[in-house]
Amino acid sequence: MKVFVTGAGGQLGSDLVRLLDGHEAITPDRSELDVTDSGSVAGAMLQTKPDLVINCAAFTDVDRAQTDADRAFSTNATAVRILAEAAREIGAHFTTISTELVFDGTKSGPYTETDSPSPVSVYGQSKAEGERHAGTDATIVRTSWLCGETGHNMVKTILNLLDKDEPLRFVDDQIGHPTFTADLAPIVLELSLQRRPGIFHATNQGAVSWFQFARAVAAAAGEDPTRVTPCSTAELRPVRPAARPANGVLDNAALRTVGFAQTRDFREPLAELICRLR
């Protein structure tokens, strides 16, 4: 298989590329390919003729998206349309990554793949539009609270705060599933290899608040978890520009339906990641 991966240097993309032994990986970086340029993308697809196109490129700064909507929509929506159309033109299967932030968080239970998106932030709106642009023949993988060895994420942020020996306050009124790229990447690849169309929720197990997650990180790092104290979203200072859903829990129902085993509780890959980082 020829596998074309955008965003190959990011958190998920880097772990995905590590799994491509036995396949031919095509991994252009941003200096080599502008995913928002239809001519460049079409040319790259025609030149390389991949079997699979997996889009891990995204504008992921949720707060900055509130004031830079053009860039958010260009990267998270327009680029998805361009990549999907170019992949379709050469007969390649297209996969793209989405987020729990396409939901407003008002549901009382976990969100399933059949729930209608209702984003409350510019970032969520751009990702929801990207899902629509991907098309019904694409694989759309929604995930949440992503953490990996590469790039910036909340595990690294919490570890840095712990090293500074300062108090940590995290909100206890936003819940979700922490998800680790080492566990997510094999799912994304397998769905792509199977050319499974549709929306799939893929997360690790264990719904927690950000406060509970920060305490779990502290405990896994051998630090005192009671250093982490709770607060409400309304008490956060400074106030974050983008609204977050109170409930970001995703039910991996579609994965179960097509025979995937249940993913691990997030505490297992968390411990593994901290060992690699420290």
Report what the structure shows:
The structure is a single chain. The protein has 278 residues and is α/β, with parallel strands linked by helices. It has one domain: Rossmann fold (3-Layer(aba) Sandwich). It has 10 helices and 13 strands. The chain has helices spanning 11-18, 38-48, 62-65, 69-90, 122-134, 154-163, 181-193, 210-220, 253-257, 267-277; strands at residues 2-6, 24-26, 52-55, 93-99, 139-143, 146-147, 168-171, 175-176, 179-180, 198-201, 208-209, 228-231, 247-248. The strands form 4 sheets. Strands 2-1-3-4-5-10 form a 6-stranded parallel β-sheet, with helices on both faces. Helix 5 links the parallel strand 4 and strand 5 (139-143). The chain is globular, with a radius of gyration of 18 Å. The chain starts with a strand and ends with a helix. The relative contact order is 0.16. The mean pLDDT is 97.
